[in-house]
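Exercise 3.2. Students should predict the tertiary structure of the chain below and write it as structure tokens, then compare their answer with the key that follows.

Predict this chain's 3D structure.
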Amino acid sequence: MKKKTQQHAYLQSYEYIRDQILNGELERGTKLIEEKLAEQLGVSRTPIRESIRKLEQEGLVKQKRVVNPTDMDLRHYFQVRILLEGFAARSASTYMNETDLKQLKECIDIGRNGTNEEIMEANKQFHDIIVNATNNPVMVDTIERMQSIIYLFRKTVVYHNRPFLIDEHQEIYDAIVAHNGDEAERLMKEHIQADLEFCLHVMRG
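Answer key:
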């Protein structure tokens, strides 16, 4: 039970600090002070320390200070995603099992009918299922380290209703089901590129 409580404290702390950074409430250059954050959240310093470490891995924090990714930083992150997830979609068209295919379809259905929060989660699952289909732990870990930046984009595309978002998921799914690796890879690359361009446009607002 204690382990579960610790895990909950860590997740709660991580999501709170991440959201504060992404919402601009913790401004760039702000030093993250463990004691102060622990007090705000009513947790010990350990989950705060773990959260800061994860955010450093994800590129939102450097030397315990909030960084602000530039357009170029975001393009660099997304170039990596385009390469890796394009490859993952190609792999999925060969190796994905029936259970995962069913889950992908469910993610698309939620994407069409769910609340914003449900769509956010379904969008994450859709991409995670495809990446996990590679059975490549290095690839999975690389994408995992980018989750905060990906979250920022996911929130923007969902809350600003990017056109054709779920239609593109459907096309990727159809290519995977048809075992068409070339098509699945091409569609995934175009999909992520479209996310990037849409987000940069919204952020410049």
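Discussion points: The two ends are 46 Å apart (CA to CA). The chain is about 75% helix and 0% strand.
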